[in-house]
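Retro notes (design track)

What went well: tokenization of the new backbones is finally stable.
What didn't: we kept losing track of which sequence belonged to which structure.
Fix going forward: every design gets posted as structure first, then sequence, in one message. First example under the new rule, 203 residues:
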């Protein structure tokens, strides 16, 4: 939505970690074997087509847009994101992507680790209950067995892992603009961000 409005490229870094997670699971890799995970990351080609809500993710030429959003991938992604060697490889790819053109990047360490010199940074937040509701709406069509309470627990667990990990923890950068989206629609959040980007928004 934002990338399309600005005419920028869109980088979903979370999808990159999900892609590696999905491939490792498909290959039957021991997710606690950090060397094996780094090898998988080296051998995997991740491509994006489209942008914003129409983004398709390809792994080695295969469209895995739906597969990487499955709960089974979400539950295992921490093995990949917590592996320093994989993160180093992903950060290198993310910076290369952005070096090829103006980019809107989404991810948990964008403003603090990957792009600390970004011209504008936004830290989007919401209450756990609201985030769980949104995620549940995404999950429900694909997995009717998952419950709302399960989603809350998963989000709380992931937040705890991401905020306390030693490598690239989830924190708000001092220069990031904080937006609490709990009671806001997508359109309202979009409007707030556009106002902050008035100096580059195409009229």
């Amino acid at each position: 939505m934002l990338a399309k409005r600005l005419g920028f490229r869109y980088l979903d870094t979370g999808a990159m970690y999900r892609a590696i997670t999905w491939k490792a699971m498909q290959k039957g890799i021991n997710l606690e074997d950090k060397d094996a995970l780094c090898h998988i990351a080296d051998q995997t080609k991740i491509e994006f087509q489209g942008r914003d809500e129409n983004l398709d993710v390809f792994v080695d030429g295969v469209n895995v847009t739906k597969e990487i959003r499955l709960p089974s991938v979400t539950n295992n992604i921490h093995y990949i994101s917590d592996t320093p060697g994989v993160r180093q490889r992903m950060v290198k790819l993310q910076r290369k992507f952005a070096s090829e053109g103006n980019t809107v990047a989404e991810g948990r360490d964008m403003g603090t680790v990957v792009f600390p010199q970004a011209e504008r940074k936004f830290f989007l937040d919401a209450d756990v209950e609201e985030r769980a509701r949104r995620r549940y709406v995404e999950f429900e069509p694909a997995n009717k067995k998952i419950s709302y309470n399960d989603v809350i627990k998963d989000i709380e667990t992931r937040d705890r892992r991401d905020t306390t990990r030693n490598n690239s923890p989830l924190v708000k950068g001092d220069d990031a603009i904080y937006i609490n989206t709990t009671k806001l629609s997508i359109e309202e959040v979009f409007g707030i961000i556009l106002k902050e980007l008035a100096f580059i928004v195409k009229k």
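Added context from the reviewer: The mean pLDDT is 92.
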